[in-house]
Amino acid sequence: MKKQTIAGTDIESVKQQNANSGMSYNEVKEYLARTTGGHGTAKYSNTDIEQVKSENSPSQQQE
Fold first, then answer.
1. 41 burial level (CB within 10 Å; 0-12, 13-18, 19+)
2. Which residue ranges does the record annotate as region Disordered (predicted)?
């Protein structure tokens, strides 16, 4: 017996369509943060801040 909502929607069909629909909203946000460096996306970043600071510090730069 198929599970259906009160309105008659086939629940398993909807679940299958959702599984095949691609990335979720949060997955898209994370992907964009990692690939474009978007604003307000620091929590998704894998950048090592201390490494960047040390690479940018004047004592490390050659003249």
1. middle
2. 1-23, 37-63
pLDDT digits (tens, 9 = 90+) for 1-24: 788 888 989 999 999 998 888 888
Report whether 4 contacts 11 (CB < 8 A): yes
If you ran DSSP here, which 8-state letter would residue 33 be given? H
21/16 Cα distance (integer angstroms): 9
CA distance 4 to 8: 5
pTM for the model stands at 0.38
Give domain limits for the chain: 10-44
